[in-house]
Amino acid sequence: MSFTAEQQAAFERDGYIIVSGLFEDNQIEAARQEIENRTYGKSFKEYLADHEQGVEKIGDFVAGRSQFPTGNVGLDGLIENEDYLDCFAGCLGTEEMSYCNAHLFVRSGPDDTRHAPEPWQGYHFDDNTCSFLPPHPDVQKYAYINSWVMMHDIEEDDAPMHVIPGSHRQLSDLLPRLVKSGDAIHGAFRDIREIPEFSTPISVLAKAGDALFYSSYLVHAAIPFANKRKQRAVWGFSLGHAENNAFTRLNHLYQMNEREYSIPFWTKTSPRVRSLFGWPPPGDPYYTPETLELLAAWFPEMDLEPYHTSTSL
C-alpha cells in the first residue's frame, strides 16, 4: 500500500499518523497474549486480580525478553507485514531504510510510575535515543520514524501518549534558545508552559491492530492512567534512512548513562576521530548554520570551527 496524498500531508504537517487496521485481529490477539505472558507471567486479567487481592510477587517469574528479536515467531513476524513497511517508507520518503530499535512497551495501571508529576512536565523527543546528533531542519531526511502497533484499543483512560502536533518541525529553531536558558536538556523539556510556540498537546487514540507512526523529532509525553485497572501494551519499532545508519542506530556508546563518558569524549576529540564513531565529517551537508548553532548549545565546549569552515566551501 502507499500513503494517499491526504495521509502524506497529514504526517508532514503533524509529525505523526495513525493507520487503521494494518494487522489482523487473530495476529494481534496472539501477540498480546505473548506480551502479557512475558510481562506478568500470566494474562493481565489474572495479574490484575492478584494485584487487587494484595499479591505482590509473581512466584519465581522472570520477565521474558522484550528487545527485538524476541524469539517468538508471532511477535517477530509483525515486521514482515508489507503494508506496515510501506508506511515506514512513506514517512521516510525512501525505500532505503535501516533498523534503529524495537522493543515491547507495556505500562500497567495498577503499578505504573512512568509519567511526570505534573501535566506540563515530561515532554521530550526520542531522537537522541538512537542518534547523538541534534535535530536538523531537514526533518524527513534526518529524523527516524518510531511506530507503535496497538495490542488493544487505546482510549482516554488508558494513559494514551500525548503529542504536540507540528513540534517536529520547530525543534531546530527553538532548541538553541531553550538549551541555553535551561528549559531543554538534550531531548527533554522542563516545562512546556514556557514554550508558547508549541500547540496544545492531544491524545493518541487508536484501535487494536492500528499502527502509529511518528517522527523521532515529535515532542510527546506519558500521562497517568485515569483507569488504574487498565494497561497499555504496544509493540514498538523504529526505522531510519539507511544513509544515516552510522549515527542513527541502537546501542552507540553515547547511550543513556554512557553519556557521562561519551559527551566529554565527543567534546574534546578531533573531527577525524569523531568520524570513526559515526559523526559526519566536515563538509557533510548535515552541517548547516542551524545545526551548528544547536551543536554549540548541545556541546558548549566543543571546537566547531572545522565544521563551520566546511560549510563555506
Can you describe this structure in just a few lines?
The chain has helices at 5-14, 25-40, 44-52, 73-76, 82-92, 127-130, 139-142, 171-181, 259-268, 271-276, 289-298, 305-311; strands spanning 16-19, 97-108, 145-150, 162-163, 184-185, 188-189, 202-203, 211-215, 220-221, 231-241. It is α+β, with helices and mostly antiparallel strands.
Give the arrangement of secondary structure elements.
Layout: H1 5-14, E1 16-19, H2 25-40, H3 44-52, H4 73-76, H5 82-92, E2 97-108, H6 127-130, H7 139-142, E3 145-150, E4 162-163, H8 171-181, E5 184-185, E6 188-189, E7 202-203, E8 211-215, E9 220-221, E10 231-241, H9 259-268, H10 271-276, H11 289-298, H12 305-311
Antiparallel strand pairs: 1-8, 2-10, 3-8, 3-10, 4-7, 4-9, 5-6
Structure description:
With 313 residues, the chain is of the alpha+beta class. It has 2 domains: 5-251, Jelly Rolls; 268-313, no CATH class. Helices cover 33% and strands 15% of the residues. It has 12 helices and 10 strands. The strands form 3 sheets. It has a 5-stranded antiparallel beta sheet with strand order 1-8-3-10-2. Strands 7-4-9 form a 3-stranded antiparallel beta sheet, with no helix packed on it. It has a two-stranded antiparallel sheet with strand order 5-6. Helix 8 runs parallel beside helix 11. It is globular and about 65 Å long. The N and C termini lie far apart (42 Å). The mean pLDDT is 91.
